[in-house]
Amino acid sequence: MSLDTLITANAVVNGLKATSKKHLLQELASHAASLCELDERAVFDALLERERLGATSVGDGVAIPHARLANIDSVYGIFARLTQPIDYDAADEEPVDLVFLLLAPESANADHLKALAKISRLLKRPEMRSNLRGADGAEAIYSMLTESHMRAA
C-alpha cells in the first residue's frame, strides 16, 4: 500500500495553527469534513473517543490520530505540519508538529491496520521527519509522502 492511495495533494495542510490537542483535532475534523464530505462533528467525536483510549502520538513530534466511521467507504488521510508544536500528551513528552490523520470505514480492519503501520514506519524515519519539517510547502510535503515508498527499504 502506497500513501498516494490514502492522501491527495489537497489533503496536505502546511502551516496549520492549533493551540492545543483538542483544537488540532477540531481543525483536522473540519478539513476531513470538507475533503471527504463527512459530518465534521461525527469526525471530531470519533477522534476524541479514540484519544480517550490513549494518545495517538508515536514520539519524536509525530501523532497519527485515527478513527473508524460508519459513513465512509474507503481509507482517507490528511497530513498537517503545524506552525508551532503543541502538547499532545505524548509518552516521550515531546510536543507534536507533524500529524497524519487517518479515517477508515468501521469494517476496514486489515486496511486500517496496514495504513497505520505504513504511516508509522514512514514517520519513524529521522530523515523523513527532518525533510517534512524543512519542506518548502504543501506540494513538497505531498511529494515526499507519496514518493517515499520508492525510496524506502
What descriptive keywords fit this protein?
six-stranded mixed sheet, globular, 5 helices, Mannitol-specific EII, Chain A
Q: What is the succession of H and E elements?
A: EHHEEEEEHHH
Q: Sheet bearing the most strands, described?
A: 6 strands, mixed
Mean pLDDT rating? 92
How many DSSP E strands? Answer: 6
CATH fold annotation: Mannitol-specific EII, Chain A
Low-confidence stretches: none
Oligomer type: single chain
**End-to-end distance, in Å?**
14 Å
Please name the CATH architecture: 3-Layer(aba) Sandwich
Radius of gyration: 14 Å
Q: Could you give me the name of the CATH homologous superfamily?
A: Mannitol-specific EII, Chain A
Q: What is the CATH class name? A: Alpha Beta
Q: How many distinct folded domains? A: 1
SS class: alpha/beta
Number of helices: 5
What percent of the residues sit in helical stretches (DSSP H or I)? Answer: 40-55%
Measured by DSSP, the beta-strand proportion falls in 15-25%
